[in-house]
Every structure is written in C-alpha cells, then in structure tokens.
Amino acid sequence: LRVSAKAVYSKYSIEPASPINFGAMIKGTKKTQTVMLENKGILNFKFRIHQAPKDAPALQGERSKQEESAPSATKSSMPRKSSISTQAHLNLGMFTVSPCSGSIAPFGQQKITVECLAGPEGICEEQLYIDITGR
C-alpha cells in the first residue's frame, strides 16, 4: 500500500504595492482605483478585508509631502481576527472597498475596487488588512 501527500500553503500576490494614493481631489468628486489579488497556488483560498484597529502600527515607508496631503487607502496582509462578514462592501471614511470577501480559485484573480468620494477639506487615510486563509 503506497500513501503520499503534499503539504502546501496559499500563495498570493497583491498589486499594486501599498499605499494606494488618490492624489488631490475636489470636494464631492469621485475616483476609483483597483487592487488585483491573485492566487498563485494550487488550492482555493478565501479572503476578507477589514479595517485596521486605530491603535495598529502604521506601515513603514517614506512618503513625500505631496502624498501626505492626498487621500490614500493602505493595505496589508497582516493577520487580524474578526467575525465573519457577509457585506459586499466596506465603508471607511471617504473610501468604499468592494468586494470585501470572497474565494479565489487556483491561478485565479479578484479585482478589488477602492473608491474615494472626496469629503471635507483635509487628509483622509485608512489602513486595511487583507486576511487570506492558509497563508
């Protein structure tokens, strides 16, 4: 009797690299950017997007003064425990992210839309976590 198994883990890529910067916007206007989440492994995986807790450490990196004055949404693949969410989109201040959960087949892709509706004058920045099962 011959028995064999192969242990694997979820392999993925997230493009573009963080942060997403919408630049300067006129109040009341809307811009959309996309993030591509790709399954580079041989197993299905599920993903969920969450808002980072306010006390979470910010992602490291240098930004120019121009970027600091523009609305931006930041993403990360750091783990965070949360209850299961069935909502199709996630509202975070001026930003709306959709879909915020789903399943991706092996070698498949999921386009995630981040929309910014410019609100009151000032800077708006949010940090997101992308949880991927089995990573």
Automatic annotation (TrEMBL):
Compositionally biased intervals (Polar residues): 69-83
InterPro entries, sorted: Hydin-like, Ig-like_fold
Region (Disordered): 54-83
GO cellular component, one term: axoneme
Domain of life according to the entry: Eukaryota
Gene Ontology annotations of biological process type: axonemal central apparatus assembly; cilium movement
Protein name as annotated: HYDIN protein
